[in-house]
Amino acid sequence: MIDVKQILNIAHYEIMRIFRERVLLAILFIVPLLYASMFGLVYVSAILQHVPLGIVDLDHSQESRAVVSAFENTPNFKVITQVSTYADLEAGMKNGLVRAGVVIPADYSQKLAQHQLTQISTVYDGSNLIYGFNTRKYFQQVLNTFSAEHTAAYLSGLGMTKQEIVNVMDTVSYSLEVWYNPTFSYATFIYMGLVLMILQQIGLLGIGLTVTREKEENSWLQFLGAAVPQWKIFIGKALPYFIANFFNFGFLMWIAARFVNVKIEGSVGLILLLGLLFDLIIVSVGFTVSVYSPNSLLVTRYLMLISVPIFVASGYSWPSTHIPAVINTLLRTMPYTWMAEGFRLLTVKNLGFDFIADKIMVLILMAAATTFFALTFPKRRKPPAQIGLAVNSALDYPNKNF
Amino acid sequence: MMIRQCLAIMQRELFYMWRDKSLRTILLVGPLLGLLLMAGVYSSQRIENISTAIVDLDKSSASSQVITDLKNSQNLQVVAHFDTFSQLEESIKRGEVIVGVVIPENYGKDIALQRQTKVAVLIDGMNIIYATNASSAVLTVTRTLGAQVGIQTLIAKGIQPNQAQEAYQSIAFPEEAWFNPTANYAYFLVLAFALNVWQQCCTLASCMTIIGENGRRSWYQIRTSGISLFKLFFCKSLVHIGILLLTVLPVYFLAFVVFKLPLACGWSSFLLFTLIFILALHGLGTMMSSLSPNAVNASRYGMIIALPSFLLSGFTWPLQAMPQWLQHVVWILPQTWFFQGVSFLTFKNPGWGFMSHYFWALGLMAVLFYSVAALRLMVRDFPHKG
Known about the structure:
The complex is a heterodimer.
Chain A: H1 5-20, H2 22-43, E1 51-57, H3 62-72, E2 77-79, H4 86-95, E3 100-104, H5 108-113, E4 118-119, E5 121-125, H6 129-157, H7 162-169, E6 172-179, H8 186-207, H9 210-216, H10 220-225, H11 230-258, H12 268-292, H13 296-305, H14 307-313, H15 325-331, H16 335-347, H17 353-375
Helix pairs in contact in A: 1-11, 2-8, 2-11, 6-7, 8-11, 8-12, 8-16, 11-12, 12-16, 12-17, 16-17
Chain B: H1 2-19, H2 21-41, E1 50-56, H3 61-71, E2 76-82, H4 85-93, E3 99-103, H5 107-112, E4 117-124, H6 128-156, H7 161-169, E5 171-172, E6 175-178, H8 185-206, H9 211-214, H10 218-225, H11 229-258, H12 267-291, H13 295-312, H14 324-329, H15 334-348, H16 352-381
Parallel strand pairs in B: 1-2, 1-3
Antiparallel strand pairs in B: 3-4
């Protein structure tokens, strides 16, 4: 029979520490909410619409006005009327007034009347490719519709009846269907990836100081000297953080679905399983880092810096198929990569266990390995190494209360 | 005497920064590692060769023509041919293919008989970067294919070939990406992400300015020595600012000289803009440092701002797509001015008239942040008379 009293005592002590240190309490419960709300507000519109568009109509004919109308009648573009010349367009693109432009040549209607080839030029701002790629897609949509209308008008001019035109033009139709995220919602695409990164960052920062704090106050010696096995110390100290992280996981997911309109589908059981595994890895890694780090400042500095590189290189946004194998392999050693991919397949694609079994298996192995290291940390009472004249690298760091 | 004292303080600060092993590593290695990692991640530069699968239920010469056109598309790469729709569905689910094209039975016969037929195109929308590019590629291909079939149909109906062609192809739609003509993702993001890592490293260093002194026991000595606090922190800050500028130089060298990322403005303008941002960022870190009881909290406060600042800056997801009020709020962060300015200077170089606002805003922020730090220090730490 395992004596859980010692574990609960340590957990109780840790909870008291958390509540006593207001900044830590805020980091555990307020900062995740703050970040999630901030990112939620950033992506709440979800779809990039009303791209500011400058139209340079050098023809000013009835035909060219039809082109202008085609762009005015879509919510994807917002025609900026201050732009009317090519110089305006150049200036507007430079200072950000417009992000895309359409140029109708001066001889547009004349060439159409003379049955000569003419063109409608489209330009987009490549300095921001979120704008750029969406604009290109919107251009294609508008121009496909406009082109079809133009063809229909031309055929009508040849004396064909409406039915005949429909028959010709609809000989082959293309049904374009976008699965899993049909509205191209950026919130569904990116938000939960960011939330999982927040959970990892805040989770590591919370538990990462649990041992260094004791070292700085000389109380870690009591843990090492007491007749309490390592695994009980780990479980006792990690339990409050584990519960807080799991609460945050559920809470932020609820915010994502309820307020940011992120698509979250899939088996609740599998979502919880992924959450539990990820949480276990975070607390065991954070605890182990804390055991081996000399002070809280170092832990804070290093852990704060890992989030951006891991997120960018994980293949969550820029697809891993387009990332070199060496970086992909490196990132496969990070639990976030597996968690984020598995979570997205589950919640966005609504896939079953078969499709994410490999991700779950890897997370189980990672959880087993990291928990093993955390449970069996050495209890040797090693004095701090003599490292000569060092600043902020030993047990202390600048602190007014020391 | 005064210069000698200043030099002594600066020498001492350099020694402190060098002996702070973790900060030294972070400043020397962090930004460079960030740049190299980002350059590696975005080394393919463009989303091309989007894996495409075809279910050809017709297997006629007309359907072969569709497949040939798809294969000739610039961004699509046909990687699989399936016999059934369910195989395609499974492959999209597994993420093996992003685009699926289903050519129905009797496709060739229907076209020949001028009967309506429908080609289904499916796109995996899970990753929007893929999906957006795939949609554009598919829309281009379908317009071309539709025109080809339409022309054939019209000719079959007895319309003159030149008229049939004119009906579909009298207007060309050339497209052009300005400032980044090849729509290169590496140009768009590598430097920005590397600078994001760099500004986080800078924040960690800046957060030590004040707490690195008044959090040590030697602070009592400094207070009683009679040295001017202004002189002390001015000289310390000079060293910090110089070091932060030095750490970004190799990043710029690699980015602009080795990786040949675009730099529309001159080097001097860009370095001057970086310097003014360093002042604002260091001011912010110094302010956080003055508000904190210890170095850990100073780093936490600083980084809580630094971490989300890139996302909030509108460099990736545009500011115009954020709620109206948030679009105004994010400008209180120096990082917003910096990343927006970096975008303008590297791609567009809109000129001093436009960029002067950015310099002024960052300069004013620096003054404000340093002033708050100085006030806080005077109120809490200045030795009381008597």
